[in-house]
Structures are given as C-alpha cells and as structure tokens.
Design a protein that fits this description.
It contains eight helices and nine strands. With 266 residues, the protein is an alpha+beta fold. It is globular and about 55 Å long.
C-alpha cells in the first residue's frame, strides 16, 4: 500500500472534517455526549493563532483522503514563570476502513521530522498510553512535567524531537483553550453541515462486567464507568488494581475488540 503524505489545503477542509467525523463517530464517548466533536475541533483549530499550518498534513491512498493530523503550539511553564514552546497534535484521524495499516504512524513520523526541522523541541499529547509509546512517546512524569493542574497520569506523554530536548525543562503544561471550549450544542449545530448519520449509542460497561470474575468485576466497578469506551486506562494501570490478573486483562482486551475498540499493549 502506497501512502502519500501532503500538506492540507483549503480545498480539503470540508473533506477532512468529514473524515474526522467518520474516524471518531464511535470512539471515546463520555456520559451525556450525543455526538462526537472532533470534526468541530479541527474546524476551530485552523482559526486559532496556535495553529501550525506547516504541520497540517493529510494522508492519501490511491488519491483519496484516508488520514489527517493537525498541530497547535503549546508550552511548558517552569517554576519561574518562563514559557518553553512545544507542540501538541490532535485530533489525528484515520478512516475506519484504513485503520491499523500504519497511516497514523506515517503521519506522526513525517511530521515529527518536519517539526524538528522547524526548530520545535518536543511534542506533548494526551493519548492512549498503550498505543503512543510504540512510536516513542514516554510518560511526561519522566521529564518532571505535569498538567496545568499539577497532575500526572499515564495518558499524558511527551516525545522529545532530539536528544536532550527537554533537559532542564520542568513545569506545568498548557495547550490552547479551544480544546476545552467545545459544547454538545455547538457540535450538534456544526454536524448539520454533513449528511445525516445514525447516532452512535455507547456500549454499556455491563457487557464487560458480566464477563469478569467477581474480584476483577469489583475492581472495574470501582472506576465508576458507565460505558465501555470510557475504559481508557493503560494495561499497566489496570493490572495494578487489586483483583485484576492476566486473565482479566485478556478478557478486557477481547470484549473491547468485539466492540471495535482496541486496547492494551497488543
């Protein structure tokens, strides 16, 4: 399969938003969400001062759009209040029929090289902690970098673009406020620009709980989840819970996969 990577152009905007909509239609929905909002986020990011058009790439297969990655500027603010410019990306989108074919990794590796050439030091993201380490991401805690709230957890990860890029840089991490300002009302209104699509109904967490042994079930119940998609903790984090063993991890992996949700280190 030949993957062609090129910069996004204004002529691609609608099609990329439609692609993003397809990629996220059934993914990572929280309680109370009626519709995904990642396609609206892409639309709004392009209008932000933090948007980095030099890293706004699409992937094509046989001349048709199959994937997209979008970047914005971010920063680490140290204890003295000094900002250190970094990058974040997201959404990174791949059409469902082309997922698990290396398109996402190709987009990341190409844009990482471009970002390094542009003089950026690192990319920090909030992403799946079992997937992104496969392309070189490490827990931000290893660099003594926290969220803006001073917290740390496995999905918060960093990728230095060159050796020593984050040496001596510690502090709190900030991204563009646009990531926090999307509402369901806005998403529903924006979605009217696209062909009608049957609403996705998140899978209830009971489909997993009913397959687990009592101790493992108790551990997952303790997380307070209502849908299967909300279970986004890493395999390592889940294994650390009392009552969770290797058999429970395999059951979680299998149930997630049965419903089209990849999880875990394999």
């Amino acid at each position: 399969m030949n993957i062609n990577l090129r910069l996004e152009t204004p002529a691609d905007y609608y099609d990329v938003e439609a692609l993003t909509r397809e990629a996220f239609w059934k993914s990572f929905w929280g309680v109370g969400q009626q519709i995904c909002d990642e396609h609206l986020l892409v639309h709004r990011l392009r209008e932000c001062p933090s948007f980095v058009p030099e890293l706004d790439y699409v992937a094509e297969i046989d001349g048709k759009l199959a994937g997209h990655i979008i970047y914005s500027k971010s920063k680490i603010v140290d204890d003295s209040g000094n900002p250190h410019e970094t990058l974040t990306f997201g959404p990174i989108s791949v059409l469902p029929e082309h997922q698990n074919q290396g398109i996402g990794k190709a987009l990341m590796r190409h844009t990482f090289a471009e970002a390094k050439q542009l003089g950026y030091r690192a990319v920090l993201i909030f992403g799946h902690p079992d997937y992104y380490p496969r392309v070189g991401f490490r827990r931000a805690a290893e660099f003594d970098i926290t969220t803006a709230e001073g917290e740390n957890y496995d999905p918060f990860m960093a990728y230095p673009l060159y050796d020593g890029a984050l040496d001596g840089i510690h502090g709190r991490y900030y991204i563009d406020p646009v990531y926090f300002t999307l509402t369901q009302e806005d998403a529903l209104e924006f979605d009217k620009r696209f062909p009608p699509k049957e609403r996705h109904v998140p899978i209830n967490i009971d489909v997993l709980l009913n397959r687990l042994e009592p101790e493992a079930r108790k551990a997952i119940e303790g997380l307070g989840l209502q849908t299967l998609a909300e279970l986004t903790k890493s395999e390592q984090e889940i294994l650390s819970l009392p009552g969770i063993d290797a058999n429970a991890v395999e059951t979680i992996r299998a149930v997630k996969l049965e419903h089209g949700l990849r999880w875990g280190t394999r």
